Amino acid sequence: MNISKLFELQRQLDEHIVREHPPKEGEDRLAKKILALQVELGELANEWRGFKFWSYDQEPRIEKRTYKTCPSCNGEYDVDSCWMCGNRGQVAVKIINPLLEEYLDCLRFILSIGLELNFTDIDVWKFKEINITNQFIECLGAVYSLHVQKKVSGEVPRIMYEHLLAYLIGLGKMLGFTWEQIEEAYFDKVNNWGTKNE
Fold this sequence. Notes:
The chain folds into two domains: 4-62 and 98-191, all-alpha NTP pyrophosphatase fold (Orthogonal Bundle), CATH 1.10.4010.10; 63-96, no CATH class. By secondary structure, it is mostly helical. It has helices at 4-20, 29-48, 98-116, 132-153, 158-174, 179-191; strands spanning 64-67, 93-96. The protein is globular. Strands 1-2 form a two-stranded antiparallel sheet. The protein has six helices and two strands. Helix 2 packs antiparallel against helix 4, helix 3 packs antiparallel against helix 5 (158-174) and helix 4 (132-153) packs antiparallel against helix 5 (158-174).
């Protein structure tokens, strides 16, 4: 597992974001990144669905078809070809994995937090809880603890960040993702940044 490549890609993306959206005076970007990570963990849990004991549908969302606008008539349809223009323009279909997409968003923010704290040369390991529900809770707890530590002491110990990253890496493994799959999807996501509104 080589996370240094991901840190470098994230550094480039963060620099682009700062150019496009400079920090406002007095803005605490770290706090916003921490909140964003918490939100993304919630969105990831929502795509996983395994905690929804009240629902008959607890299967993870691992496939979603997206459709692009028909080049002939500018209509957007959830079919393989456009019926409005007599099927002259083929509608492009892309299949994505919403669970993986949300995991990548979590990874993006945790890497950005590491860059802000200057924690890029770190030991990478993984923690795995007894089940995915507990793993989510531990991830959220580790994010909150990092925030409190920064707020109270002004500093975050490297080991605290490494624990958070370890829980997130363990969560990815528990969700069935290989590191190769994560790395490839991360490169694709960062390289396509700006082609859609994030």
